[in-house]
Design brief:
By secondary structure, the protein is α/β, with parallel strands linked by helices. The protein has three domains: 195 residues, Alpha-D-Glucose-1,6-Bisphosphate, subunit A, domain 3 (Alpha-D-Glucose-1,6-Bisphosphate, Chain A, domain 3), CATH 3.40.120.10; 207 residues, 3-Layer(aba) Sandwich (Alpha-D-Glucose-1,6-Bisphosphate, Chain A, domain 3); 117 residues, TATA-Binding Protein. Helix content is 38%, strand content 21%. The protein has 18 helices and 22 strands. A seven-stranded antiparallel β-sheet has the order 16-22-21-20-17-18-19. A six-stranded mixed β-sheet has the order 1-5-4-2-3-6, sandwiched between helices. A hairpin with a 4-residue loop joins strand 17 and strand 18. The longest helix has 20 residues.
Length: 558
């Protein structure tokens, strides 16, 4: 660690800002920054900003971009790539570093002229017929984080096979400080880097018309409050709302691109606290619904006004169920519609879909897997894409992008809310209607934060314990699934799970209730998913609390 630290400190051309931070590092900070290397995983790379091999900085970003350029050149002698960036600290710097590295090895780079959302990046790749792309973002992580995601020619994050190929190139690349890049001005002059922006925006906004199922409706009956949580949707959202005629009040304080998120405790619209400022605005305007998008605008949170004037946050599973219900009741499918979701998403969406004769496909957690399935049925004679979603408030309504898309989701959510409002219903009324028809599902995600090496070790111990000793929970499991061994175990038999290996466990009870466990792929935490069915919602909640207590008590002993 000290050797690595000195190598950085003695590098003659080291960025001065990074050097100043290096000089102030404590021994503990040196250990954290140089004790390991920041890993490029299957979804990209995310980390704390700062100098060091285990930190995100211009040098770690440049190496990944350089290797991604070499990766693209293996399949195309003249590849093209799109780069976009969010409002995070250093996002602009990282975007230009990545653009120079890619362009210097021979990749034609389309670089957005200002911040853009993840779904617009995904759209732009196919729109410009590029071979891939990079998104500079840390999604909903705290301000001191940033990251990058890498995409294929379909605007989908790299598959496991392609990720492994890129990871191998990165691991075998010895160059670091000595990666040579050409001057930005010459790359622009030679058109090796080209700015893009308004043309892509216009094409994307027009494509959103395909999301609408009732374009004849006057959506102004719905009173909406919207916040981008200081993020990238500020760039397009007004144009989208004006284009499609929604009546929107904006949370002015949060329409500013603030990388420190000073008005928020967390820029994550899964958390009710992210709506604090929006609720103040909504109360002034008596809004029916509040919408919040996360910083890179791939995820969307929804709050609905209750009968007593308060605002209730809907979960990702609940919004997903409402949208499936709205779609199947208002759209005619020419072929068998397919809903694509994940193994840790509630079964209520599947029940709705199958009741209307739709096919349901389950994938591992992560929208890259949903995007892969969308690609597989793109030209199918039997199936057409109906809807894709995961419980962590990520949805896709139309196959105009291959990643979760908060912007098209907002359009669909607001149209559905407006449609039902004409019938005298709120989205909460619709949700209760769904429960009455398809069963009362209570879904909850429990996050157990376990930071650092000891935290990783404990996560591993917990999963191994439940993998080998789940019988000690004294719950009447009829099926358990181990996605690491890829086996589904019944009482007297077992069968193969036809999904890639993943460190996920899932346990089923006789009534169809289940819980699942997995380490987070982007944060230092373990996640426990509960999906519990009851004759009433109160019964489902009571059962969930009982099961959760048993699980947590066992975890505390490990």
């Amino acid at each position: 660690m000290r050797e690595k630290y000195n190598q950085w400190l003695n590098y003659a051309d080291l960025d001065q800002e990074l050097k100043n931070v290096l000089l102030d590092y404590s021994e503990e900070e040196i250990e954290e920054a140089f004790g390991t290397d920041l890993v490029f995983g299957t979804g990209g790379m995310r980390g704390i900003l700062g100098p060091g091999t285990n930190r995100l900085n211009i040098y770690t970003v440049r190496k990944v971009a350089y290797c991604y350029g070499k990766y693209l050149l293996e399949s195309n002698p003249k590849p093209k790539a799109v780069i976009a960036y969010d409002n995070r600290l250093k996002s602009v710097d990282f975007a230009y570093v990545a653009a120079q590295a890619l362009a210097s090895v021979g990749v034609k780079v389309y670089l957005f002229d200002d911040l853009r959302s993840t779904p617009v990046l995904s759209f732009a790749i196919r729109y410009l017929q590029a071979d891939g792309g990079m998104m500079i973002t840390a999604s909903h992580n705290p301000p001191r984080y940033n990251g990058l995601k890498v995409y294929d020619q379909d605007g989908c994050q790299l598959s496991l096979e392609l990720s492994d190929k890129l990871i191998n190139i990165i691991q075998n690349e010895e160059k670091f400080f000595d990666i040579e890049v050409q001057d930005l001005k010459s790359l622009l002059a030679n058109n090796q880097i080209e700015y893009i922006g308004l043309d892509v925006d216009k094409a994307y906004i027009e494509k959103l018309q395909e999301v609408l199922l009732h374009p004849e409706i006057d959506y102004r009956n719905l009173n909406v409050t919207f916040t981008p949580l200081h993020g990238t949707s500020t760039k397009l959202i007004r144009k989208i709302f004006n284009r499609y005629g929604f009546n929107v009040n904006y949370v002015t304080k949060q329409m500013i691109n603030d990388p420190y998120f000073t008005t928020l405790t967390s820029p994550n619209p899964e958390n009710f606290s992210a709506f604090d400022e929006a609720i103040k605005v909504a109360r002034v305007h008596n809004s029916d619904i509040i919408i919040a998008t996360d910083p890179d605008a791939d995820r969307v949170g929804v709050c609905v006004r209750t009968k007593d004037g308060k605002y209730q946050l809907l979960s990702g599973n609940q919004v997903g169920a409402i949208l499936i219900y709205y779609i199947v009741n208002n759209k005619r499918f020419d072929k068998t519609g397919m809903v694509i979701t994940t193994i840790v998403t509630s079964d209520i969406g599947e029940r709705i879909a199958k009741a209307y004769d739709l096919e349901v496909k389950r994938t591992l957690t992560g929208f890259k897997f949903i995007g892969e399935q969308m690609k597989l049925i793109e030209n199918s004679q039997d199936y057409e894409f109906a809807f894709g979603y995961e419980e962590s408030i990520g949805y896709i309504v139309k196959d105009i992008v291959r990643d979760k898309d908060a912007l098209q989701s907002v359009v669909c959510i607001l149209e559905a809310a407006s449609y039902y409002l004409y019938q005298g219903k709120t989205l909460l009324d619709v949700l209760n209607e769904i429960y009455e028809k398809f069963g009362y599902f209570y879904d909850e995600v429990v996050n157990i934060n376990l930071v650092g090496y000891e935290g990783s070790k404990k996560i591993s111990n917990i999963l191994n314990y439940f993998r080998n000793h789940y019988q000690e929970l004294n719950l009447d499991f009829i099926i358990h699934e181990d996605y690491l061994t890829q086996i589904r175990y019944y009482t007297n038999q077992e069968e193969q799970i036809n999904l890639p290996k993943s460190n996920v466990l899932k346990f089923y009870l006789p009534d169809g209730s289940w819980f699942a466990m997995r380490p987070s792929g982007t944060e230092p935490k373990m996640k426990i998913y509960l999906s519990i069915i009851g004759k009433t919602m109160n019964e489902a909640i009571d059962k969930a609390n009982s099961i959760k207590q048993i699980i947590l008590e066992k975890i505390n002993l490990i």
